[in-house]
Design brief:
The complex is a heterodimer.
Chain A (H helix, E strand, L loop, with lengths): L6 H6 L1 H4 L5 H10 L1 E5 L5 H11 L3 E5 L24 H12 L4 E5 L8 H5 L4 E4 L4 H14 L3 E7 L2 E7 L7 H4 L19 H20 L8 E6 L4 E6 L21 E4 L5 H4 L2
Parallel strand pairs in A: 1-2, 1-4, 2-3, 4-5
Antiparallel strand pairs in A: 5-6, 6-7, 7-8
Chain B lengths: L1 E5 L13 E5 L3 H11 L3 H5 L10 E5 L2 E2 L15 E6 L8 E4 L12
Parallel strand pairs in B: 1-5
Antiparallel strand pairs in B: 1-2, 3-4, 3-5
Chain lengths: 275, 110
């Protein structure tokens, strides 16, 4: 790290720096880190805020959507005035206002097997804050194939899940769930919904994993799935062994190039299809 | 064997919103059969057409994934806790279908 912290930075990050696990050295690592957040939604909003506040040097934000009124219940980086604006633009504006140390790169596009490798290439760590299985499996496969560590987060009603994947050092998301639910599988959109604060809990856990990874401290959620239930107020951890039969990181992987899944939702009302 | 089963939110519509149920079962297969007896419709949501546990749903016995134990025939003993944990994505649970395995075309319905 060939730079010195400015006086303003020493004050701004003083509560980080005072932690023995961080210190000036750790803060410099944070300021040099490049993190990509996929989805500026329920998970991505709190994650982006905490990472920017912590001084992460560069944040990439991928989102193809515009802000809608129904997003504001949980996607806290967007305000009422942002309705109709691209989420990337709205998120960039808030992050810039919060911390000028954080450089922003935005991608207003939907991730596909064609563009994902190029988008993740320049980053040290990927946060999956997407809201759908096709993207989650695409992110997993792309990160495994290109050796990028990432944080998985999932939310549904009052439940949340988080797991960290370090390629070559533990299981991947397909070791846990080999395939996404097929068409016709349940739960369906009729049972949808998410308590806004649950998205916050999981998004902030993802931000914490990123910071631990950057600092090289603590135990990441590698090989462990964190399961949160808000109704019972409990966190549980289940073991996730590396699967030798994993289709992407197992002994005989069947997936050697990226797979796109079609996103199908059986609800007719397009309003219901948004995240 | 009396087994405590943790029911995930998406399946609680079948258990009258109970997050935990207690059942007699000696193996995971028996547990699924008894779940079906008490909460009709459950089996269909856990098992696919070939009789295997669906690939986006995992069973854990005391936090251990049964795929790394004896799968469906994993033996249960008194006091064991079984958790059923499905894959979850976002607030709107979407249904997906593989398109082309070679990734030539992507059709993402908005």
């Amino acid at each position: 790290m060939n730079f010195e912290l400015t006086e303003e930075q020493i004050e701004r990050y003083s509560r980080n720096i005072i932690l023995p696990e961080v210190g000036g050295k750790g803060q410099k690592k944070i300021l040099s880190a490049k993190v990509l957040i996929i989805g500026a939604g329920g998970l991505g909003s709190p994650c982006a805020f905490y990472l920017a506040a912590s001084g992460v040097g560069k944040l990439g934000i991928v989102d193809s959507d515009n802000v809608e009124l129904s997003n504001l219940q949980r996607q806290i980086i967007h305000f009422r005035k942002d309705i109709g604006r691209p989420k990337t633009v709205s998120a960039e504006e808030k992050i810039k206002a919060l911390n000028p140390d954080t450089k922003i790169e935005t991608f207003k596009e939907r991730l596909t097997s064609k563009n994902i490798l190029n988008i993740i290439k320049g980053y040290d760590f990927i946060v999956d804050g997407s809201d759908n299985f096709p993207t989650k499996f695409l992110v997993n496969d792309a990160c495994i194939l290109s050796g990028k560590p990432f944080s998985h987060g999932g939310i549904f009603r009052f439940d949340g899940q988080a797991m960290t994947v370090i390629p070559g050092k533990g299981p991947c998301y397909r070791c846990l769930f080999p395939e996404p639910p097929p068409k016709g599988a349940i739960p369906s959109c009729q049972e949808a919904g998410i308590l806004g604060a649950v998205a916050g809990v999981i998004g902030v856990i993802q931000a914490t994993e990123v910071l631990k990874f950057i600092l090289g401290t603590g135990e990441l959620l590698v090989g462990r799935l964190l399961v949160f239930n808000a109704l019972q107020s409990n966190f549980r951890i289940v073991g996730v062994p590396k699967s030798l039969e994993c289709p992407v990181c197992g002994e005989k992987p069947s997936i050697k190039e990226l797979v796109d899944y079609e996103l199908v939702c059986d609800m007719q009302d397009p309003k219901q299809k948004e995240k | 064997m009396l087994i405590k089963v943790r029911i995930p939110t998406p399946l609680q519509s079948l258990t009258k919103n109970s997050a935990e149920v207690k059942l007699e079962a000696g193996t995971i297969l028996e547990l699924i059969e008894n779940l079906e007896k008490n909460f009709p419709g459950m089996k269909d949501r856990l098992i696919d057409e070939t009789g295997k546990i669906r690939r986006f749903i995992n069973f854990y016995v005391n936090e251990e994934d049964i795929r790394f134990l004896k799968k469906e025939v994993t033996v249960l003993k008194d006091g064991d806790e079984v958790s059923i944990i499905p894959a979850i994505a976002g607030g709107c649970q979407t249904l997906v279908q593989p398109t082309r395995l070679n990734g030539l075309i992507l059709i993402l319905a908005k």
